[in-house]
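User: Please predict the structure of the protein below. I'd like the answer in structure-token form so I can feed it into my own downstream comparison script.

Assistant: Understood. Taking the following sequence of 63 residues as input:
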Amino acid sequence: MNNRLKVLRAERNWSQAELAERLGVSRQTVNALETGRYDPSLPLAFKIARVFDQAIEAIFLED
């Protein structure tokens, strides 16, 4: 699953560690999400959407 996490994070000048702290996950998890090695659970996807104040569909894109 493709996503816009890296772009959204960069627009806010957040490091991976800062985003990880906001989400309650590790920096490694954020890296894995951004590189497509890991798809988030539904609760984590909702949390990400809330942090960026966007719909899940605006962040996560079907292949």
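That's the full token string. The mean pLDDT is 96.
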